[in-house]
Write a structure and sequence with these properties.
The protein is α/β, with parallel strands linked by helices. It folds into two domains: 78 residues; 99 residues, 2-Layer Sandwich (Transcription Regulator spoIIAA). Helices cover 55% and strands 20% of the residues. It has a five-stranded mixed sheet with strand order 1-2-3-4-5. Helix 1 runs antiparallel to helix 2 and helix 3 packs parallel to helix 4. The two termini are 32 Å apart.
Length: 188
Amino acid sequence: MHDYSDLEGAGPELSLVRRLREERNGLVDGLRRIATIQEALRRSILEAQCSPAHDAKEQLSDLVARAQMAATAVVDLVSDLLSAPPKVSAWVEHHDGIAHLFLVGELDVATRSRILAVLDSVAKEVAGTVVREVVVHMDFLRFLDCAGIAPLVALANELSAHGGSVRVVGASAQQKKILSLTAIVFDE
């Protein structure tokens, strides 16, 4: 398995690699904990099978209690691992006077408020002439609708008013169709 350590600092796109690596490590840790619980339960079953018959009822009761605790622990772990992450993540990185806005997940009416704070900070930087171009990375944006595009259009209008521009990269065919209804430029 490649650990991507040789790619660190190679560009803004790699921040996503780092985030995905962190999430993968969390999942691997959770799966290791589940395996530990399974092994403890397996040992308990073997101990119960090897114990003298006069303790069988007590051993069976203990085994059932351990199995219930193990099942509860596994359910809790799986629940934690599968708990719904935010439907959209957004962050900005700056490179050579260009703000790179990364969008991951789904951007629609239900999630657009999550990125407004990020977009507000970019708009303030534009007003302060720190940024003249924003590149929006949509490579990992699974869904975009008209309600979700509204904050991006507002950002494009803000930038345009200050002599800047917004450019979208990595948009899917569906996203390009929506973007074509706006003045936002996207790479083909």
